[in-house]
Design a protein that fits this description.
alpha+beta, globular, three-stranded antiparallel sheet, Arc Repressor Mutant, subunit A, two-stranded antiparallel ribbon, 204 residues, 15% strand
Length: 204
């Protein structure tokens, strides 16, 4: 039977496309390349990274009359993004320990930097051990755009296996059949079957 090549809109495609959905973006490559210490996908790390990247995307300030862009501003007040583990936990729905472990993995993999500061507040109260996070653009670019090839065919270059999707679902639901979803070791992103060649680690 001839393959149907008609790509016209269906009612559902049209309805979904009209929804003004905004928020975090998780490239599929992150789900392929970000790995747990045991080599399994790291969806929690990917979502934590997406939250950090969201805050580092500029805000466009437009002229009220013309709607033309007049300037770009950052979303946070300090020179770097200040977020606590608890704030990220509340935003993403993961436990504080899961977020902390994900931050450790992202930092260990060279995708973000973490800085701990102590300083007085506006009211003069001393604040200790305040965490500031910053992505590493070169590492994020490598993670997102470096060539990927499938073990079977290039047509499936960005596809996860059924087992990968099952593990992602189980991880997000907090059930990984005894497999750890936490750890302090870097992501495994080189010499995997998903990556073409030996991609150097940004932290090397």
């Amino acid at each position: 039977m001839p393959r149907n090549t008609d790509r016209g809109l269906t009612p559902i495609v049209e309805a979904i496309s009209k929804l003004d959905i905004s928020g975090n973006v998780v490239p599929r490559e992150w789900l392929i390349r970000l790995k747990m210490p045991n080599g399994m996908p790291d969806p929690i790390g990917a979502l934590v990274l997406a939250e950090i990247i969201f805050w580092y995307r500029w805000t466009i300030i437009r002229d009220e009359a013309t709607q033309h862009a007049v300037r770009y501003e950052r979303r946070f007040r300090a020179d770097k993004l200040q977020k606590s583990y608890q704030q990220l936990s509340n935003a993403l729905g993961f436990s504080r320990q899961q977020v902390r472990s994900a931050i450790d993995r992202l930092e260990g993999g060279g995708y973000i930097t973490k800085e701990i500061r102590s300083f007085p507040s506006k009211e003069g109260v001393m604040l200790f051990n305040v965490m500031f996070l910053e992505p590493v653009p070169e590492a994020i670019g490598l993670l997102t755009f470096a060539p990927v090839q499938s073990a079977e065919s290039n047509d499936d270059a960005t596809n996860l296996s059924d087992d990968d999707y099952a593990l992602i679902d189980a991880t997000l639901e907090g059930d990984v059949s005894g497999r750890s979803v936490m750890g302090n070791t870097p992501h495994v992103m080189h010499n995997t079957p998903y990556v073409t060649g030996n991609i150097p680690s940004p932290s090397a």
